[in-house]
Amino acid sequence: MGDHRTLFRLRTVRQHSARPPSDPGFWRSPLRGPWLTAVLGVVLLAGVTVLFVTGLLSYAAYNPDVAPSNDRTPERGLLGFYLFAWPTDPHWLYRLTQGVHTTLGVVLVPVLLAKLWSVVPKLFTMPPARSVAHALERISLLLLVGGVLFEFVTGLLNVQLDYLFPGSFYPLHFYGAWVFFAAFVVHVALRLPKAVQVLREGAPRDFASGRGAGRGAGGDKHRDGRGDGHGDRQRGDEGVREPDRDTGLVAPCPAAPTLTRRGALGAVGGGSVLLLGVTVGQNFDGPLRRTALLAPHGGPDPGTGANAFQINKTAAAVGVTREETGERWRLTVEGPHGRRLRLSRAELLALPQHSAALPIACVEGWSTSDQHWTGVRLRDLAELAGCDPGDGLPGVFVASLQRSGAFRHAGLRDNQVRDPRSLLALRVGGEDLSLDHGYPARVIVPAAPGVHNTKWVNRLAFGADR
């Protein structure tokens, strides 16, 4: 009897594997169905919306309209309609928004993969379009799948500092986000009403427990206890199959279940929790950072003493040497009326010194706690260059000794210059800056992206954009 069952199963597997993916019988998982897809979809609806908003905020934080050096998407046109003057309060703002953006993106990876798996039969549906509405849905689905894969892959590579894709990350991710989100909005408009209906009807009975949770159970449990043969097993299978609701997701000939629907959701949730645990630590100092096993800025902090905190690019990596940052180094300060000063580090230290407790937060999602910086206020240097505070202090263009790289120059907005916590920092934690942290002088500005806290500064041009 056992041999006959084995042969029957093998023959069934061969029959289904010989079918093309466009045949609904090719897809046999009993887990697929409207309910699982709807649950995953609602999670992604919330998560992707947060990702999109925090991504737009990250773009605004670069103040792309201040200076050409800040703008990596000069052809953005109307896509920059929402840009605003990025504030300096609270001082941890960028640390929060970008930390949420990157950490949530990593955490959503299992949910995204499960959602794509749950709807993969739809990608092979034939004919490609049955009506105008169906054609619109299919096009939005292709753009949605392509867009979300592109955004997540490039985002994850950016977090890992692996720039394997052609071109700059910033325009690719920015324009890709708009294409993806447009398709996402269309898809939500078409599918959300049905998803809400499915969720309101409740979860179907699960395979292991046989418990019904709602009206969509797909059948009544047999209670008479009679019969233990193939007929009862078939009736039991029917009892846990949910109605397809014209989605094309429920397998017409499902295989035997090896996992319950709730078990599948638990596995997805467990994967997300695991990724959270090995990623989120890059936003904290101390022991928590050592838990960020999947982040380049996890593990122990580099350096010693007060300079023992995370570094994105070392001096050696960008070609800055001790010779050009030594006694011969001078800071050029330029004003809007042609005034030009050249100051040594000793002369900068002789100016009034001020302190500020500010973090470093980078686009890759890592950050430090507040570091205690000491140096000269940018607004004091602006006045020294001939700017009249009564007329309103202008923004400043910051140049570095760094010879190459996307952000060796940066433009700061006037509100950033005016903030008393914005410094040309000379020391941190009571010690001179290390070379890797920007010695002899670096900019530090509250709530600014890390790349705008320029290291190895050699020129400040107030009222200029280059």
Give a brief outline of the structure.
With 466 residues, this protein is an alpha+beta fold.
Explain what this protein looks like in three dimensions:
The protein has 466 residues and is α+β, with helices and mostly antiparallel strands. The protein contains twelve helices and ten strands. Helix 4 (109-119) runs antiparallel to helix 8. The model is unreliable at 209-239 (pLDDT under 50).
Which secondary structure elements does this structure contain, and how are they paired or packed?
Layout: H1 2-17, H2 34-61, H3 93-107, H4 109-119, H5 132-159, H6 169-201, H7 230-240, H8 261-277, H9 315-318, E1 331-334, E2 340-343, H10 345-350, E3 354-358, E4 371-377, H11 378-384, E5 396-400, E6 409-412, H12 414-418, E7 423-428, E8 431-432, E9 442-444, E10 457-462
Helix pairs in contact: 2-3, 2-4, 2-6, 3-8, 4-8, 5-6
